[in-house]
Amino acid sequence: MGVFKHLSRLPEFDDDLEKLGKRFRTIREDLEIFIDKQLYLYHKLKVDNRGISQITGLSIDDPKLFKAKKFA
After folding, report:
1. DSSP per residue over 7-69, as a string?
2. Nearest 5°: phi and psi at 41?
């Protein structure tokens, strides 16, 4: 987590990540790359390359939720 001051994850997410890590060995590194590159582009540099999009139509307004479409 180099580019963001604070990043929070739900315990359920960490549990799922642990389980997926057994099948997909690079998932933790992939997630860090996603955070450092794609989220940094969108949230810090305001560059929208359509790799992530906000989920709309939910019953909550805050926090904003996003879905990842692609990243490389």
Report:
1. ----HHHHHHHHHHHHH-TTHHHHHHHIIIIIIIIIIIS----SSEEE--S-S--SS--EEE-
2. -60, -45
pLDDT in tens, 36-45: 888 888 888 8
12: which 2 tokens? 């359920």
Q: Summarize pLDDT for 1-24 with one digit per residue, the tens.
A: 467 788 888 999 999 999 999 999
Q: Determine phi and psi for 47, rounding to 5 degrees.
A: -105, 120
Rounded CA-CA distance 55/6 in Å is 21
What is d(CA 40, CA 55) in angstroms, rounded to the nearest whole number?
18
Rounded to the nearest 5°, which phi and psi values hold at 18?
-60, -45
Amino acid at residue number 17 = L
